[in-house]
Write a structure and sequence with these properties.
four-stranded mixed sheet, about 400 residues, globular, four-stranded antiparallel sheet, alpha+beta
């Protein structure tokens, strides 16, 4: 079994064979993946060694101390945090070999084609259709593979679609069954004909989000993940990982949104008031509790896949970001009302800390929507964590085609 000392030895061998100071960045990252040091808990041959997830910090610490390049994980957060674990769990061996290596090193960026104009909070009501062209029934079993799917529909709130090569996509393949049962999960090539990415300018002035129109997009059946009609179950793996990725990020004390506020408080005593002091103390404590809870959640992940607990972390993340950014604007007074740049941009990533207070305040409004609305996540926590009775669902056994829209 791989232990910490074995990982240190393997890391030392990697650094000796590929000195960071003289090795091309991508060449180093490829060598790291091939050595099983990318994500150590993944299987051998897929960037890992089958080691405990908790030992990843051993490798990361050694490489950071040596000045080795990283894979710029923020740029491909959807790929690393959502697509990769889904491919690992449901992908064929061919799919794993094809997608995981370029995903991890950052050669291929991923986005998520889930939400639709009429299917946001109620994602299972999605209407994007995928029709099998070879004449096979949409209810075919996993064994009946082959042919192509023709996809038509619209997706919305797609972060990073303008920079992405691949997308994880869920589409309706059978309208004659209840909404959760007729969905299939695909991998979509964003460079294919019929994929139209259009910017959605946000209140921040940027267009990090997009709407994506799919018109007769042809997806080979070899890019299907999981069984036909089983897409909702596959998507739950994606969504659970998404909430952990958003709400369970590893941060140092006073990392994230609380950092700039604390810095301003310490450096600008003339801005302090008793009321702001009390509110800042409360938020500082809550942020530290959330940080330590996220660390405990990451330790629980060592034993298996993320569960509904990630919904609670994502809820806390959204609320705290919005309250902290609001406090920062108040603390700065007139300065907090200034905004650095309204220029229309299509950024590669979201930079909360690198921008000003006004940007943080406006961008944090999206935290309670992206990755599942807070209202939906409250239901998940109530039903799946606390065991409370589920809300009545009158459409549970109704075929999707018969739903009122």
């Amino acid at each position: 079994m791989t232990d910490a000392s074995e990982l240190q030895r393997r890391t030392a061998e990697l650094l000796a064979a590929y000195p960071p100071a003289t090795t091309d960045r991508l060449d180093f990252l490829k060598a790291r993946f091939d050595a099983g040091l990318a994500w150590v808990h993944y299987p051998e041959g897929l960037g890992g060694l089958g080691a405990p997830r908790s030992l990843q910090v051993v490798v990361d610490a050694e490489l950071e101390a040596a000045g080795a390049p990283d894979n710029d994980s923020r740029r491909n957060g959807i790929g690393l945090g959502m697509a990769a674990p889904t491919i690992l769990k449901y992908g064929t061996e061919e799919q794993k070999q094809r997608y995981l290596r370029p995903l991890w090193i950052g050669e291929e960026v991923w986005c998520q084609l889930f939400s639709e104009p009429g299917a946001g909070s109620d994602l299972a009501a999605l209407g994007t259709r995928a029709v099998r062209e070879d004449g096979g029934t949409s209810r075919s079993s996993e064994a009946e593979s082959g042919g192509e799917w023709v996809v038509n529909g619209q997706k919305v709130w797609t972060s990073g679609a303008h920079n992405s090569r691949w997308a994880i996509l869920i589409a309706r393949t059978d309208p004659n069954v209840p909404k959760h049962a007729g969905i299939t999960y695909f991998i979509c090539d964003m460079t294919d004909p019929g994929v139209d990415v259009r910017p959605l300018r946000q209140v921040t002035g940027e267009a990090e989000f997009n709407e994506v129109f799919l018109t007769d997009v042809r997806i080979p059946d070899s890019r299907r993940l999981g069984a036909i009609g089983d897409g909702w179950r596959v998507a739950q793996t994606t969504l659970n990982n998404e909430r952990v990725a958003i709400g369970g990020m590893r941060l140092p004390r006073e990392g994230g949104m609380i950092g700039p506020v604390v810095k301003t408080w310490r450096e600008r005593p003339e801005l302090r008031t008793h009321d702001l002091h009390q509110r800042l103390l409360k938020l500082w404590v809550e942020t530290e509790v959330a940080r330590l809870t996220a660390e405990r959640l990451r330790q629980q992940l060592v034993a298996g896949q993320p569960g509904p607990e990630g919904a609670g972390m994502k809820l806390a993340f959204a609320r705290l970001n919005q309250e902290i950014s609001g406090l920062e604007v108040e603390l700065r007074g007139e300065e907090g009302l200034l905004y650095d740049d309204w220029t229309m941009r299509r950024p590669e990533l979201v930079d909360f800390v690198g921008r000003d207070a006004g940007y943080r305040y406006l961008r944090a409004k999206g935290n309670s929507i992206e990755g599942g609305t807070s209202e939906v996540l409250l239901n998940i926590v109530a039903e799946r964590v606390l065991g409370l009775p589920a809300e009545p669902r009158t459409d549970k056994d109704v075929a999707w085609k018969d739903l009122a829209r």
